[in-house]
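To whoever is on call:

I kicked off a structure prediction for a single chain this morning and the downstream step that reads the tokens threw a length-mismatch warning. I double-checked the sequence; it's 307 residues and nothing unusual in it as far as I can see. Pasting both halves so you can look.
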Amino acid sequence: MNHSPSSGRPAHHYAYLSIGTAIVILALKTWAFVITGSVGLLSDAVESIANLIAAGVALLALIIASRPPDDNHDFGHSKAEYFSSGLEGLLILIAAGGIAVTAGGRLFHPQPLAQLDLGLSINFLATAINGGVAWILLRASRRLRSITLRADAYHLLTDVWTSVGILLGILAVKVTGWLILDPLVALVVAANITWTGIQLVRETSSSLLDATLPEDMQATIKLILNEYKTQGIQFHALRTRVAGSRGFVSFHVLVPGTWTVQQGHDLCEEIERSLLKSVPGISIMTHLEPIEDPRSWQDESLYRSIE
């Protein structure tokens, strides 16, 4: 699922917010470029086009990811979020390439800038709006554990830092009269957002390969399981993975062979409740085994131990 049991808006609500913001920002930044002729502001407008496309894809991904499991998708559709985050990373890289090409031409053929005061004011307003929406999306992504919203937030934050750098560059041009500062700042911005795009693509690729849960979640799970070891219970074959906003955990529970099925079942239910209380939103699968049987330990070395 793409929303938590706690109160709050669902993920797709924030995608609509992102789309509306992208349209407004694109209009403002395009206006700023047209009246000034700044290649820095042009680069900012180009990145806003990528923001708009990415916001639309994010909405589609969140809608698909929210669908429940069906006959062909037993574990749900939450991995659809990675299509959005991967596309966002690629769009960031494409935007960076476009900025670099445009700025490179201006390095050798600087052009005068016009109406800088109005252009800077418009871009500052757009930057402030982007920053506010990015903050909202980042908070929502943490609450909902949504990589799509987090990618969208990082994309907007990249846009914010891009705009700040460009604003500083244009101010420097205004103060010094050195026109070459405009494309130089644009190139620095392109390098910065390239790094952000690479990081986002790497994270998406890792998650598509069934990356494990974050270390803090794994530590919490191991801490809870270790508490039961004082009762003579053992665990091994711990496996975790992330799929969009969902997390999956499986492990083997080793109990005395003299226990009844009911006793073992009750213990597994108790352990699962404890885990869900501390790490909500995960799906848990347990496998009960007799602790005295050597066959119960044969797969211990195949997976990470629980210590």
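Update from on-call: the warning came from a stale cache, not from the record. Cleared it. Sanity check on the structure: Confidence is low (pLDDT under 50) at residues 1-7.
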